[in-house]
Design a protein that fits this description.
Elements: E1 2-3, E2 9-11, E3 14-16, E4 22-27, E5 33-38, H1 41-58, H2 68-80, H3 87-102, H4 116-129, H5 131-150, H6 177-185, H7 190-202, H8 206-210, E6 217-218, E7 223-226, E8 229-233, E9 239-243, E10 251-254, H9 257-274, H10 300-316, H11 328-341, H12 346-353, H13 358-362, H14 369-376
Antiparallel strand pairs: 1-2, 3-4, 4-5, 6-7, 7-10, 8-9
Helix pairs in contact: 3-5, 4-5, 7-11, 11-12
Length: 382
């Protein structure tokens, strides 16, 4: 506590010199000593308190302030990568940040200058592209700015109070047997037809199917051991790589008769193409069960393009699908629904799908009209 010439307490950081001038001093968050001098004690105190408040609000620290780009890079390098985040996820974060921050010349914004309205406008712009893009961007900004707040770089997290209005949720359904029959009828490519049947009979994610390698398939014991998925690495070489599955765990999927026939036929064909190098000794495409006619790894967009062509071809024939939307993920929902309708336990289906919880598995299940009618007939027994 400082004192005046009469030995009266003036408060922390304030004192009076022998010439009668009052002096106030404090060290700001950048480590710099700040001084104020005035003969009017009341005026000095107002200036002193104002300076301390401004310093608190600016939150400038000894390491200096950060731009949005600098802090993002720091966050990725020191918090995301060390915490066992997959390369695929890091690429996803980088792609989102580059598209909506760097390419929009927002990377040099000082963190301390960011306001709630700035974040809201960024998110709104991303939402024009898609709701998922806006959610991804907001998630990135919330996480990195929360860390900046915890490290006293900013007064508060301006992204925390930003909200995205949830769109009306579209119902995700499963395919009927008739839908399946008509779609397969209009898929001209044997390869794509096989891949659709594989998803309907194994519940594989599209990335797991595209990355299915020979060493994951055991035809003798009739099971598939899923241990990785195919990812596209956006580096200078733009290469395909194997990464961990979504839940980072391996799982076993038994091979039924339909799957066995497909894999047995496709693998024999691939063996003739590759000779004895097919067991993982060559390039990544040489390790894959399913490849394009050129022997390259399938990209997701290429597969979806062929699938959508077949869907449109079916619609043009005059058939109207009972399921409003068809996609690889719908095939996975269909697999889950059929497994449970066949009497399989939710625990088993959850394991086959690689879900962390049964609740997630049950959200995949959609009774067919026939099954609903069969189940509701039991009401007469209650």
């Amino acid at each position: 506590m400082g004192k005046d010439l009469r030995n009266k307490e003036l408060g922390l950081g304030i004192s009076q010199r022998k010439d009668g001038v009052y002096v106030a001093r404090f060290t700001n968050r950048a480590g710099k000593r700040i001084f104020f001098c005035d003969t009017n004690l009341s005026l000095l105190r107002r200036k002193f308190e104002k300076a301390k408040v401004e310093d608190y609000e600016n939150r400038s620290v000894a390491s200096g302030s950060y731009t949005l780009k600098e802090w993002y890079n720091f966050w990725i390098k020191n918090y995301k990568i060390p915490n066992e985040v997959t390369p695929q996820y890091i690429e996803h974060l980088n792609a989102t940040f580059n598209k909506y921050i760097l390419l929009k010349d927002r990377g040099n914004i000082d963190l301390r200058d960011l306001r709630n309205i700035d974040i809201q406008l960024m998110v709104n712009e991303a939402k024009e592209n898609s709701i998922s893009a806006s959610r991804n961007l907001l998630s990135i900004l919330k996480q990195m700015l929360e860390l900046a707040y915890e490290n006293d770089l900013i007064v508060k997290n301006p992204a925390k109070s930003v909200h995205i209005k949830k769109p009306k949720r579209k119902s995700t359904e499963s395919m009927s047997r008739k839908d399946e029959k008509m779609l397969l009828k209009h898929i001209s490519s044997q390869q794509v037809r096989d891949m659709v049947l594989m998803m309907l009979n194994t519940g594989l994610r599209i990335s797991e199917l595209l990355g299915l390698s020979f060493d994951e398939v055991n035809l003798e014991e009739r099971y598939i051991e899923i241990g990785h998925q195919l990812s596209y690495k956006r580096n200078e070489e733009r290469e395909y790589i194997f990464t961990q599955t979504k839940n980072k765990k391996k799982r076993i999927i038994p091979i039924n008769d339909v799957t066995f026939e497909i894999l047995n036929r496709v693998i024999k064909k691939r063996e003739k193409q590759l000779g004895k190098t097919y067991r993982g000794k060559g390039a990544i495409s040489d390790q894959l069960v399913f490849v394009t006619v050129y022997g390259d790894a399938y990209c997701r967009s290429g597969f979806n393009s062929t699938l959508n062509y077949s869907i449109n071809k079916t619609l043009k024939s005059g058939y109207e699908f009972e399921c409003p939307r068809l996609s690889p993920h719908i095939f996975r929902h269909t697999f889950a629904t059929r497994c449970l309708e066949a009497g399989m336990s939710p625990n088993t289906v959850s394991s086959l799908l690689g879900h962390g919880t049964i609740r997630m598995t049950l959200s995949y299940v959609h009774n067919s009209p026939e099954k609903f009618k069969e189940d509701t007939s039991l009401l007469n027994r209650i």
